[in-house]
Design brief:
The complex is a heterodimer of chains A (248) and B (250). Chain A has 248 residues and is an alpha/beta fold. Chain A is built from 9 helices and 12 strands. With 250 residues, chain B is of the alpha/beta class. In chain B, the strands form 2 sheets. A 6-stranded parallel beta sheet of chain B has the order 1-3-5-7-9-11, with no helix packed on it. In chain B, helix 2 packs across helix 3 and helix 3 packs antiparallel against helix 4. Chain B is globular and about 55 Å long. Chain B starts with 18 loop residues before the first helix and ends with a helix. The chains are: A alpha/beta (248), B alpha/beta (250).
């Protein structure tokens, strides 16, 4: 589904990713772990197309399409979802308005029929219930006045409504207490654990992986994948620390 | 306007104006006079949507007697020059409220000029102006508040925010306070900004195309200006005109 080949990039002229390669197939959940400053968030933003994250070499193809030839909104319409570590607040734009415009923009781009108001509200209610988020929260401005945990839950409601094929989740577990972590983990499984979908989880910690079991774990350090393995690698990292594993 | 000589840029109130465009309609018609009698409430609105290339100048002289209230809603979007001025005199315990939006593109010069005089004690006034300027447009707000010597317990505010869509657009905001009383609250805030790039990327990452995302952010920016228009038909007309104008700029 996603093939990244020898990707290099720069932010403000500073190289961050230095030849990163990774292949994710449909039905798989991959976790990328790594120390601070390894380039984890940079990878997420680069795949999402954030302005300023300049690709200087290598390729990424998403279902055979060159990801970097698409604008950020076209990547979303193609089925990519980027979960933000720090979801953005948009005063004056309600979650429902934001999501309906987003979903219908995607549908227009794919040549599908748009949802009308009633259809959209039914969908939003269903996905909000899945994540235990009160519908009243969705009537409020996007992320404004939301706690850290509420923002992450709202992100997962967004993912549920937009129904992507590939989700790149950047530290979706940060800022969550244990109960919220369970709910978010269950939400990721319910929405994304399907044979035609895939997930790339970016995280510092093992704890999210207790709820969302990865098929593969990769260690990102110095802008490259330095080690890959199965779920046991995450436990090893938790036990030994990054320095040990990276050096080994 | 009684002066017959064409103003110059040395006149403070015309400093940012388009005097060539003004010359084509000078001298402008007499001001519209509005008098609110003691204890009464009244409201008005103006949709300034003159044809492209035209010059439109609207002057209002408003007297609000003791205990009266006047609410005005303004959408200033039309013409090569669109200028709306208010000279307001407030009686004891009266209130004046102006909610206005400027939305301009092309080579438009759009202006709101206010002079609010708190002549007597206990009066309040509020002015909320939101401007969206694209291409080579200039949008200006010049607002002076004058508080007379015995106008104690005056409470006045000006909130002015401008959003620039292009580097070639200009926003001017010039609040001016002249206060001769000592027990007075006058607040003013002015900001000039541009569309939030983080928000635009967040919206794009959810699939929103850039024009839809910009329009949504701009609608949110001017939302509120027409919230309390009492006549629903007028409110719908102002909001629809604002959105139609916005859509020409994104």
């Amino acid at each position: 589904m996603l093939t990244i080949d020898n990707l290099t990039n720069e932010i403000d002229g500073k190289p961050i990713l230095k030849g990163l390669s990774l292949a994710i197939k449909a039905g798989e959940i991959h976790a990328i772990m790594g120390p601070n400053g390894a380039g984890k968030s940079t990878l997420a933003y680069t795949l999402g197309g954030r302005p300023g994250y300049e690709v200087t070499g290598g390729d990424a193809s998403f279902d055979g399409v060159n990801l970097f030839s698409l604008d950020p909104h076209e990547r979303a319409a193609a089925g990519l979802f980027l979960g933000f570590q720090y979801p953005v607040e948009i005063p004056g734009v309600s979650n429902l308005q934001f999501l309906r415009e987003s979903l219908n923009s995607q549908k227009r781009a794919r040549g599908e029929a748009e949802l009308n108001g009633g259809e959209f509200i039914r969908l939003a209610k269903e996905k909000a219930a899945l994540l235990g988020l009160d519908m009243d929260m969705l009537k409020r401005s996007v992320n404004v006045g939301f706690s850290g945990g509420e923002k992450k839950r709202a992100e997962m409601v967004q993912m549920g409504i937009l129904d992507p094929r590939l989700a790149i989740l950047d530290e979706t577990d940060s800022g969550l207490d244990i109960d919220a972590l369970k709910i978010v983990g269950a939400g990721i499984n319910a929405i994304m654990r399907k044979p035609d979908k895939a997930v790339l989880l970016i995280t510092h910690y093992q704890r999210l992986l207790d709820y969302v079991k990865p098929d593969f774990v990769h260690v990102l350090a110095g802008g490259r994948i330095v080690k890959s393995g199965g779920p046991e690698l995450a436990l090893e990292l938790e036990r030994e620390g990054y320095a040990e594993v990276v050096a080994a | 306007m009684t002066a017959l000589a064409l103003p110059t840029r040395r006149d403070e109130a015309w400093r940012y104006s388009d005097l060539d465009a003004l010359a084509s309609v000078w001298p402008v018609p007499d001001a519209t006079r509005i008098t609110v009698t003691a204890g009464q409430s009244a409201h008005g609105h103006l949709l300034q949507d003159a044809a492209t290339g035209a010059a439109a100048v609207h002057d209002y002289v408003i007297d609000i007697a003791d205990g009266g209230r006047f609410d005005f809603h303004l959408l200033n979007i039309g013409g090569r020059l669109g200028r709306v001025t208010f000279a307001v005199t407030l009686g004891k315990g009266s209130h004046f409220e102006l909610n206005g939006a400027i939305i301009g593109g092309g080579d438009q010069t759009l202006e709101i000029v206010t002079q609010v005089t708190h002549a007597r004690p206990d009066a309040t006034s509020g002015q909320t102006i939101r401007s969206i300027l694209g291409q080579r447009a200039t949008g200006s707000y010049l607002g002076s508040i004058n508080v007379a010597r015995d106008a104690q317990r005056t409470d006045a505010f000006q909130s002015v925010k401008a959003m620039l869509l292009d580097r070639t657009a200009t926003a001017n905001a010039k609040p001016e306070l002249e206060i001769f009383a000592d027990d007075v609250k006058c607040a003013h805030g002015a900001t000039v900004g541009e569309l939030d790039r983080q928000a635009l990327f967040y919206m794009a990452s959810r699939g929103m195309d850039p024009a839809t995302a910009k329009t949504l952010l701009l609608k949110a920016f001017v939302a509120g200006v027409f919230d309390d228009v009492s006549d629903e038909a007028v409110k719908d007309r102002l909001e629809a005109a604002a959105i139609a104008k916005l859509e020409t700029l994104v």
